[in-house]
Automatic annotation (TrEMBL), chain A:
GO terms (BP aspect): protein transport; retrograde transport, endosome to Golgi
Domain of life of the organism encoding this protein: Eukaryota
Record bears the keyword Protein transport: yes
Pfam families referenced in this protein's UniProt entry, alphabetically: Metallophos_2 (PF12850)
Domain Calcineurin-like phosphoesterase residues, every copy: 3-115
Organism annotation: Rubroshorea leprosula
PANTHER family in the cross-refs: VACUOLAR SORTING PROTEIN VPS29
Protein's name according to its UniProt entry: Vacuolar protein sorting-associated protein 29
From TrEMBL, chain B:
Organism of provenance: Rubroshorea leprosula
Protein family per UniProt: Belongs to the VPS35 family.
Alphabetical keyword list: Cytoplasm, Endosome, Golgi apparatus, Membrane, Protein transport, Transport
GO cellular component: cytosol; endosome membrane; Golgi apparatus; late endosome; retromer, cargo-selective complex
Subcellular location: Cytoplasm; Endosome membrane; Golgi apparatus, trans-Golgi network membrane; Prevacuolar compartment membrane
GO biological process, one term: intracellular protein transport
UniProt key word Chaperone: no
Protein name as it appears in the record: Vacuolar protein sorting-associated protein 35
Pfam family, one: Vps35
Entry superkingdom: Eukaryota
Amino acid sequence: MQEVHDYFKSLCPDLHVTRGEYDEDSRYPENKTLTIGQFKLGICHGHQVIPWGDLDSLAMLQRQLDVDILVTGHTHQFKAYKHEGGVVINPGSATGAYSSFTYDVNPSFVLMDIDGLRVVVYVYELIDGEVKVDKIDFKKTATTRSAH
Amino acid sequence: MMAEGVEDEEKWLAAGIAGLQQNAFYMHRALDSNNLRDALKYSAQMLSELRTSKLSPHKYYALYMRAFDELRKLEMFFKEETRRGCSIINLYELVQHAGNILPRLYLLCTVGSVYIKSKEAPAKDVLKDLVEMCRGIQHPVRGLFLRSYLAQVSRDKLPDIGSEYEGDADSVMDAVEFVLQNFTEMNKLWVRMQHQVGHDFWSCRCYSACQSFILLADHELRLAVGLSGLQGPAREKDKREKERSELRDLVGKNLHVLSQIEGVDLEMYKEIVLPRVLEQVVNCKDELAQYYLMDCIIQVFPDEYHLQTLDVLLGACPQLQPSVDIKTVLSRLMERLSNYAASNTDVLPEFLQVKAFSKLNNAIGKVIEAQVDMPTLGVITLYSSLLTFTLHVHPDRLDYADQVLGACVKKLSGKGMLEDNKATKQIVSLLSAPLEKYNDIDTALKLSNYPLIMEYLDIETNKVMATIIIQSILKNKTRISTADKVEALFGLIKGLIKDLDGTVHDEVDEDDFREEQNSVARLIQMLYNDDIEEMFKIICTVRKHILTGGPKRLPFTVPPLVFSSLKLVRQLQGKDENPFGDASTTPKKIFQLLNQTVETLSNVPAPELALRLYLQCAEAANDCDLEPVAYEFFTQAYILYEEEISDSRAQVTATYLIIGTLQRMHVFGVENRDTLTHKATGYSAKLLKKPDQSRAVYACSHLFWVDDQDNIKDGERVLLCLKRALRIANAAQQMANAARGSTGSVTPFVEILNKYLYFFEKGNPQITVDAIQSLIELITTEMQSDSSTPDPAADAFFASTLRYIQFQKQKGGAIGEKYDSIQV
């Protein structure tokens, strides 16, 4: 939606969007890859990956896009997995929107601090009116692959 | 020529200044040599320049200021003289020998100033004498400036309480009397200007004679004359009014002085000052003066005084000339009082005590009645000010606010929809005031006249107002919690909900329309009540309204309603079944409603959106264990897919949504599940592009293997899907080879390999190591073959897949064993 797009652009001009199942705007791609520092990131909404929310299937997409970090969504449930191929992050729903996956959608979003071979994931969740922050560390071992 | 007139004035002013400066020069010489005689002689001559009638007030002021400066020096000299032994009384006598009256009076005032300072006579006596003497000048401009001079020099010498010039007990009265008298005389002079003859060289007496002359004269002369002094009465009037405006502050200053007199307390203001001032205001019967002075009174005196004299002040209003813009005066008064109330809540009881609201209300009513021709804008402005006043002073009296709105409605009725832009803007501001004040749409909804006023707005403004209302709700996060309130609210915002006059407006800007509807969608999310029955009523009410919106609005308004309903279903799941029969809300009822609601999207048409919503409903029905309901939703979704969705890309996405949803369903019995699965696989295999087919078909493999349900782990059907996907991928390769000479990407094969590994790990006995091995070899061969196009993405994908296999081998345990025999 244009308003939301503009709002995000006002937060950060470097905006990357992939298509969700309710997005009518066909200019958004199904998935996208980008490089930040030493990390390759992939973005995909996730409704295209069956079964929805399945780690192994998402890992396959991660291999396919050849990325260290896969950012995905659709389930409105915050998840952060680490596996041998890298990291899968689902930041959940920033608005706490209805989801068929979970009955308790707490609004949440994620900030990733990418520094060298390390990424720190900060999770912000709104639980019962209070903002709770959590932190998860990931380190990319230099041996898993050559830097791109 | 007009330009010539101005040029002449410039010349005269220059001449006046020159004369003034010359005499000033000689005066200074006399001052320096303590020559009183000469000083008086030259100062009188200097002041004679002020006797001119040729200058406009603006230019006269320039001359006057120079004189004023010179007189300060003279005053200092007089003071010195008295110190040197010259008697002030003698001096006072001496200056009266000046030949002409105007210089005489200026000099007298100047000496008077020193006289008062000397305290040889009571201030009141000197002041009284001076103010009387000034009557000698009856020419408006000259008189005004003279009296202004008197006011200026006397300013700091008034016998006020606590002042050094305070005489006996009654002196404040004397001070007040002095100022009032000066004010009254100045006002008279000022008003007289309106009827004064023009000061340029054509006098009124010649006017008619010249007129006839012009009629006989030749064309050019007529033109020349017409453009010079004889501008015609209207032009003259404008000019005069402009000149009068320039002088108004001279008159108003007196009121300011009155307000500064310490001794003027509420009592004195009420008994003496206000009545005297108003008397002059009313009696002068001059529109300009009345407007300016009323406004002056309001601005200059404290608000608490106004509160206590409201009767008197308002009582003067009907006595003013009918052409006076009394509504602006009243508006400004109410504005001041509103601000007074807002800044200082302690004074609120006072407002109540003097019954301010009813007095103002009545006064306004009377004014509107009296001025029959008052334009709508004026009426609205008045009521707008009154409403703001009411909101500040009596925030708890909704009935007052409603009364004001009601009076507005009465005045507007019979006039049809408003056409005046300013008036509509004023109404918007009128209606926004309660919203801003109460921060709660609830309160505004209680004002019965509120929606009635909105009836008089044109369609555009109606929408603007509706948007303001919605913004207010969103900003304040107001929860609208009953169906009745929702009904009232949607009545107010109907401009956004549907096309008002039955015709569709095509000129609406796309972006604006979208924003509007999005805000309505957001609003729908704010409508909520914990109580299930009430929430269901709310949903029904909203539904009723949005269904009148027409095809363009439904895609915006239906989704939020659907999701609100699904949330309600969730709530119901948490509660036990109501044992009291079927009057209450059940998930079934809600699903029925949902079905009918999503159906309306076919009128838009919006099949893709409808499909998504049907699938959401199906999942919710699944969670409620309502198999037939879920099946019905799937049926609807499938029908849409088959009949309405023909765009290839849309089909791909829709297929994934169908597969994804179906994969999560646990409520279906074998038969139903088979039917739906069979159809889904069919859609997958019939997608347009072969790679899409291949992907969708292997996605279907998950339909036969669901982790948390042991009775859906059909290894054979899974393998069938994967093999079918493989066949399609192969066919795609061959087609590409035939069509383009190269075999295209091996990515689909790598994807399928990954799926083999997936099910292999899950323990599907049908997936053998051999199958995996041969697939790996197939891919390797394909990639190395001559006819293949190099594809780094596919290479990387394959490489990471192989890395994955390695990793699994190294994991050890059961997984390690499984992967052991796979060679990479």
